[in-house]
Design brief:
The structure holds 2 protein chains of 2 kinds. Chain A is an alpha+beta fold. Chain A is about 25% helix and about 35% strand. About 5% of the residues of chain A have low confidence. In chain B, α9 packs across α17 and α10 packs parallel to α17. About 5% of the residues of chain B have low confidence. The chains are: A alpha+beta, B alpha/beta.
Chain lengths: ~260, ~525
């Protein structure tokens, strides 16, 4: 009986030892498998996407940077190319409410849609997607576009990118000289998009807090509501385009 | 026997209790009493009412709302109006739907008849206005009003007709507009054409085709630019609906029977496909605002609302494009293109105003007084003047103030031109049927055109199979087969709530218990005998 117990104990210990090695081997294999898996997906590089003609079907591998609110089985996504060479604006992508909750920042998805242009904004429309298990190992840092402030010819190269601009001065907006407006001309109310004008001392730009992206309960929305004309600020956002640069601002802080 | 009787009595009592909760919990709706006009308005009481108002992202319109409230409150110091502004009509619709479920609707709301059709699926949610219209004291033109309000007869009948559902007025028109054809006359004449008084669809396509000619370097001959979309239609749904109406073809009837999938629709879409393939046509959804392309000299014919006139033209007071991109040209306006120039037809559209029912009829009456105030001349003329709207009352249209406005040289000429065009054609306007689901059908109509344009641009094959598949997909997407199947105007209210299920189960148990008790009694009786 005692011998039997010893044999069983040894067998359990051996099994545990074997399982430790097995798991390690799986992990090592998984890491290389994940890298291999990116290659296994068929998708366009960002350069290929850029070169693609409008109204052609595109398949891109991308990592979510942010999303607008889900509504009626659609969601709009700001995403970086998986290879890190550019960014996409994916407009009204088909998405269930359940899936929308998994589209958090950092999720890597394979998107198929059509490259389109609307009022100068190049975007992917009529898109569908699938989740991947890939991790984005090179998240795109925001590009500093302060030097290109107000210069659409230069800014267009960074369309849809996450960006920062620093040391900007809040200018008066609207007939009453307000620091910001609800809707483009003040015709809205709290909860609507915010518009505010900033300058670099030479020229001005109008920035937007897109309410479907960052609503009234977010820090940036409230930060803009707290702005005063003359404040000096640093901003971050996505370089959306509508008849020229029309950035969607996601962060406003006092200039450093 | 005794214990069984007690058990059944208990179950019966419980079922009564459940039935109370079950009825009130049924489908999440709140049962409200039908509104009855009070005999008098209690001016000794204070009322606070909410007004949800949509504007066209136009701050002048918000100022008019604020002024209207200020003037109204001066007349009725016991009524305080809280304004909530919207710029998106889908947002106001969604918020109302959400608030119906929680019984927190506003008192007065700018709305559209398509939306009302869904709102009224809740019992007594929206106040039917017919009795209010004709009330001698507080109705339209009533004796006790503190302002001059129009009578029913002084509301333009074509506009008022749009506000009826199943023969009942659930809203009043607030502002009305139509669509206009905005034309770059300079380019049309440069192409060798003269613009007729009534433009036909054939004329549009012929000139648009001519405008697609290119220079050897690939730029367009007419404007020397890389971009030219000769004809852009802002509202794809209006385009399909208008063409079908002009051709006397099916769309839907007043009861929600869907007729849109017919040969005329297919013929229209084939034309859309052909013209898109030539580079002659696009829509707002696919390319952008007609006004932006028109003002940049990149479009020749733009169809948009008369209520968008202040954005149209090289000298428009409002513009989304940089001034350096604006091209100078002479612009003229016409009614939308027609198939039959002898019998022009164009859509009438625009916001209406409704009143939501509340427990307190005095509160509803206060709300009605404010809603009615929106039809006074001061509000009507001021708001109509912000864009190419027309007042909905003949009282305002025929007033000297309005005539002065139409003849004011300081006003933007294109806005006045489209306004006059609309006033001359009110008798040629039509409205679309309103029923629960009419919004879905309208969206489907737009989808047909937009899908066709996209498919052509994406070089898909456009043939009978394409149309058959698209009709199937659009039907499923907007559940149009369910609209046709259901003649009931009530909306699908979703799954039964648990309270109602509990009630039905309890009632079932009770009846089973009663049956068991009865059978037991019968058996016992037989045994005794």
């Amino acid at each position: 009986m005692k011998a039997m117990k010893k044999v069983l104990s040894l067998a359990v210990v051996a099994a545990m030892a074997l399982s430790v090695f097995a798991c390690s081997a799986d992990t090592a294999e998984t890491t290389s498998e994940e890298t291999q898996a990116a290659v296994d997906y068929e998708y366009m590089s960002y350069a290929e996407y850029e070169a693609a003609a409008l109204d052609t079907e595109v398949t891109v591998l991308c990592t979510v940077m942010a999303t607008q609110s889900w509504w009626e089985d659609q969601i709009t996504v700001y995403a970086q190319a998986f290879d890190g060479d550019g960014a996409y604006f994916i407009y009204n992508m088909a998405c269930s409410e359940e899936d929308s909750e998994e589209l958090f920042e950092g999720a890597t998805i394979l998107v198929t849609g059509y490259k389109s242009e609307w009022e100068g904004e190049v975007e992917i429309t009529d898109a569908t997607f699938e989740f991947t298990d890939l991790a984005q190992e090179n998240p795109m840092e925001p590009v500093d576009l302060t030097a290109d402030f107000g210069n659409d010819d230069a800014l267009i190269a960074y369309q849809n990118r996450n960006f920062t601009m620093t040391g900007l001065t809040v200018e008066a907006s609207g007939d009453n000289g307000d620091a910001f407006l609800y809707s483009w001309d003040g015709s809205g109310s709290q909860g609507d998009d915010l518009y505010f004008t900033v300058s670099n001392g030479e020229t001005t730009m109008t920035f937007t807090v897109e309410s479907y992206l960052t609503g009234a309960d977010t820090d940036v929305y409230q930060a803009v509501e707290a702005l005063n004309v003359g404040d000096t600020i640093d901003v971050a956002g996505f370089l959306y385009w509508y008849q020229g640069a029309n950035p969607h601002i996601t962060s406003v802080v006092e200039a450093q | 026997m005794i214990s069984l009787r007690k058990a059944l009595s208990s179950v019966l009592a419980l079922s009564v209790v459940f039935s109370v909760f079950g009825v009130t919990g049924c489908h999440g709706s709140v049962t409200r009493n039908e509104f009855t006009v009070p005999e008098y308005f209690d001016t000794s009481r204070q009322f606070e009412i909410t007004f949800w108002a949509k504007n066209d992202t136009n701050v002048n319109q918000t100022r008019i709302y604020n002024q209207a409230i200020e003037d109204f409150e001066a007349l009725y110091p016991n009524i305080s109006v809280n304004l909530r502004l919207y710029t998106d009509y889908n947002k106001i619709y969604n918020d109302v739907i959400t608030n119906i479920a929680t019984d927190t609707t506003p008192n007065v709301c700018i709305t559209y008849p398509d939306h009302i059709a869904t709102y009224i699926s809740g019992e007594n949610t929206v106040v039917p206005l017919d009795n209010l219209f004709t009330d001698e004291r507080y109705g339209l033109g009533g004796s006790e009003l503190l302002f001059e309000s129009p009578s029913v007869d002084q509301i333009v009948p074509q506009f008022l007709d749009e506000c009826t559902i199943n023969g009942v007025h659930y809203c009043m028109p607030y502002m009305r507009s139509t669509e206009a054809l905005y034309i770059n006359k300079t380019y049309v004449e440069a192409l060798g054409y003269e613009i007729p008084d009534i433009v036909t669809w054939d004329f549009i396509w012929e000139v648009s085709n001519a405008a697609t000619a290119k220079n050897p370097d690939g730029t367009y001959a007419i404007n020397g630019q890389d971009v030219m979309i000769p004809f852009i239609y802002k509202s794809s749904d209006n385009m399909m609906i208008t063409m079908l109406r002009q051709l006397g073809a099916g769309y839907s009837d007043d009861y929600g029977n869907i007729d849109i999938f017919n040969d005329t629709t297919t013929s229209i879409l084939r034309t859309v496909a052909d013209e898109t393939a030539l580079g002659a046509f696009s829509t707002f959804t696919v390319s952008g605002y007609p006004g932006n392309f028109l003002n940049a000299g990149q479009c020749i014919f733009g169809v948009d609302s008369t209520a968008g006139s202040t954005w149209m033209g090289p000298h428009a007071p409002l513009s989304d494009i940089h001034e350096s991109n604006i091209v100078d040209f002479e612009m003229v306006v016409r009614p939308v293109p027609q198939y039959d120039t002898e019998n022009p037809l164009m859509m009438s559209q625009g916001p209406s105003v409704c009143v939501f029912n509340k427990e307190d009829p005095q509160e509803v009456l206060a709300s009605w007084l404010f809603a009615q105030y929106l039809l006074t001349n001061d509000v009507q003329i001021a708001y109509a003047g912000t864009e190419g709207y027309v007042p909905v009352t003949t009282m305002a249209q025929e007033s000297q103030d309005y005539q002065d406005y139409l003849n004011d040289p300081e006003e933007y000429s294109i806005k006045i031109d489209v306004t006059n065009m609309f006033l001359e054609n009110i008798g040629n306007t039509f409205v679309t049927p309103v029923f629960n689901g009419s919004t879905s059908l309208r969206n489907a109509a737009a989808q047909l055109i937009n899908n066709t344009v996209k498919s052509v641009r994406r070089r898909e094959t456009i043939d009978d199979e394409y149309f058959a598949n698209m009709y199937e997909e659009v039907t499923a997407l907007y559940r149009l087969d369910q609209l046709s199947a259901s003649k009931d105007s009530r909306a699908d209210l979703g799954p039964m709530p648990s309270e109602s299920k509990a009630l039905l189960i309890t009632l079932g148990v009770v009846w089973i218990g009663i049956g068991v008790y009865f059978a037991y009694g019968l058996v016992k009786k037989r045994k005794k005998s």
